[in-house]
TrEMBL record:
Pfam families: Lactamase_B_2 (PF12706). This is N-acyl-phosphatidylethanolamine-hydrolyzing phospholipase D. The lineage of its organism: Eukaryota, Metazoa, Chordata, Craniata, Vertebrata. Keywords: Acetylation, Endosome, Golgi apparatus, Hydrolase, Lipid degradation, Lipid metabolism, Membrane, Metal-binding, Nucleus, Phospholipid degradation, Phospholipid metabolism, Zinc. One of its GO terms (cellular component) is nuclear envelope. It comes from the Eukaryota. Its cofactor is Zn(2+). It comes from Seriola lalandi dorsalis.
Amino acid sequence: MEALLCRSVRLLLACSCKFSKYPGLLKKASLLGSKSPQVSLIRRRNSRCCGVPMEKPSSSGRAALEERKSLVEDEVIRGAEGGEVDPQTPRKSSSSRSSRKSFRLDYRLEEEVTKSCRDKHGRWINPWPTWRFPSYSMLLRFFLLDKNHSNVPTSKEVLDSELPVMEPYFVQNPDLSDSGPGLRVTWLGHATVLVEMDGLNILTDPIFSQRASPFQFMGPKRYRGPPCTVEQLPRIDAVVISHSHFDHLDAGSVASLNARFGGELRWFVPLGLMDWLVKMGCENVMELDWWEENCVPGHDEVTFVCTPSQHWSKRTALDDNKSLWGSWSILGPDHRFFFAGDTGYCASFQEIGRRFGPFDLAAIPIGAYLPRDVMQGQHVDPEEAVLIHQDLQAKQSVAIHWGTFALAYEYYMEPPVRLREALEQKGLKPDSFFTLHHGESRLIASREGDVFE
Ligand SMILES: [Zn+2]
Ligand SMILES: [Zn+2]
């Protein structure tokens, strides 16, 4: 029974099916004992950024970018296309809307971007032809017949040698965690990375729990432990969340981060997740639609933009796609970082690259991609991850969403091998899209003259 339930949880987390379309599977999912969907209506809090115009990037490499893009403080409420937002839009208080800063768009290029959209039932949908639901027969085959090739060793010695877990530098020497010039990235397993850039410490999709599940006694269990605890982290200024799946929005980690940092930490979430965070006790939550942006109070110079991804959301038996999913573009005066979250390949990465690229670093998923027909809509394979890297105009990328949970059926060490092959085939250097050990850090120089201690 547990094996069946584990498979259900795995599918719930990793598979792109719409359970609501398949009553039998929905029944299985409901066995997970989910809570009722959140219904309370709470306005966003702490929604103001300070009103100082954003500084232009100082890097000389940004000059061309600045020719076609300028950052302004909009006194008038503007949407992603620079036009005025529909005043009927119900999701924001007037105070937060009137204080929003926006990127002035590139009118010369008449840049088009893909907006978020919902179906007639109000559930979010993916607006690209690359989104596919697996058929009922595919799902049955996945559940009952497909062989799981992940073959994660049970031996700790083997795992320690293949996927070592290192103690992060900030545990060994907390004094070093005041970042100097450059951008520093530390992989903390799965899609969790710590990025230190432009004076901010940013955490992505934090999961420090043993299982990606509503329960800690069943559901996908991590085969590599977290390299540190929440208590060992340096100061965290911002957390970005990509979507509601349990391997990306972990209740235990949210509770621990909130207990430690409280309102000093700003949570950035896509539309529909604020109420969940508020119920968890988080006070400083910023909920954004695709192409909307905001910042950490007191740090106006770094802009957080919610950008698209091709995925879906689900946390309970009945809340399919009731909250939005997304990626995050974080744009500072000296560095630009992109976090893809969980995604299939879609046309929006070119849009993001055109509007906000080049990025100094992108965190892009490379795992949980087999069987391809079931997973393709929602999870890229390593070859598609390299395409995203190119679309974004990322100078370097770091691989995420692999080596931690066995959520799909590829061999657990296959993603980095295929990544290296894909880079080679495209004539790209191995270092342009690298993997890290759990807990390992890398410093990224964004411009000449960046010197690291
Ligand atoms: Zn997901
Ligand atoms: Zn995931």
